[in-house]
Amino acid sequence: MSAEPQYPMRINKYLAGKKYCTRREADEMVKKGRVSINGRPAVLGDKVSERDVVDVKWRAKKYRYFAYNKPRGVITHSPQDEEEDILGTITLKNIFPVGRLDKDSYGLIILTDDGRITDALLNPEHAHEKEYEVTCAHKLPDDFKEKMERGVDIGGYVTKPCTVNILGDNTFSIVLTEGKKHQIRSMCGAFGQSAVELQRKRIVNIKLGRLVPGEYRAIQGKELSDFLKALGF
């Protein structure tokens, strides 16, 4: 469960916590005189108590959201030397990927210009589902599903319970509600397995569908409203 908000808190943290915007955007709104506390204009650094009345006067920004199929070999961001990142493969401007997929993994990633959703989607406290399909180098052991679902020690950390479906001798799907670095590869490694194919198929209710590698589509309509509702917006 999320911790109860601690008052008094800075106005930018308050606005971000209420999901109006990010803290940086909150600072800009305060500078522009669009925020008041108990009827007076807020200033940077102001603190808000639980009983204060905060008013925000602004025209909501129309954010953009896209489902993108990251190809294998493309990194999420911060390319080095000859590497290519996601933003180098698309024509969309002023957007960023939410979360990561390592270079050798591929599949669904969310692209957006809405900084509000980053913590809402990635913070493990919120336990949002992400589904993957994995192919290992060797046949899976008979107790693979049972032990994976119960939790696996990946170097001093025991993973949270998850859902696993065996799809073939060496292929399975897994639904996680957390996202440690290289978690699935490490979980497979606990069984002496090497994940040779790792594809993300779903994030919350957003599905990869028929997107080909390098292709993206807009998330809109009911799909978008259901997604944002799941994130608390």
From TrEMBL:
InterPro entries in the cross-refs: PsdUridine_s_RsuA/RluB/E/F_cat, PsdUridine_synth_cat_dom_sf, PsdUridine_synth_RsuA/RluA, PsdUridine_synth_RsuA/RluB/E/F, PsdUridine_synth_RsuA/RluB_CS, RsuA_PseudoU_synthase, S4_RNA-bd, S4_RNA-bd_sf
Gene3D superfamilies, per database record: Alpha-L RNA-binding motif, Pseudouridine synthase I, catalytic domain, N-terminal subdomain, RNA-binding S4 domain
Keywords assigned: Isomerase, RNA-binding
Residue ranges occupied by any RNA-binding S4 domain in the UniProt entry: 9-72
Pfam families cross-referenced by the UniProt entry: PseudoU_synth_2 (PF00849), S4 (PF01479)
One function term, GO molecular function aspect: rRNA pseudouridine synthase activity
Top-level taxon in the UniProt lineage: Bacteria
E.C. code: 5.4.99.-
An individual GO BP term: enzyme-directed rRNA pseudouridine synthesis
Matching PANTHER family: PSEUDOURIDINE SYNTHASE FAMILY PROTEIN-RELATED, RNA-BINDING S4 DOMAIN-CONTAINING PROTEIN
Similarity annotation: Belongs to the pseudouridine synthase RsuA family.
Listed name of the protein: Pseudouridine synthase
Protein species of origin: Candidatus Kaiserbacteria bacterium RIFCSPHIGHO2_12_FULL_53_13
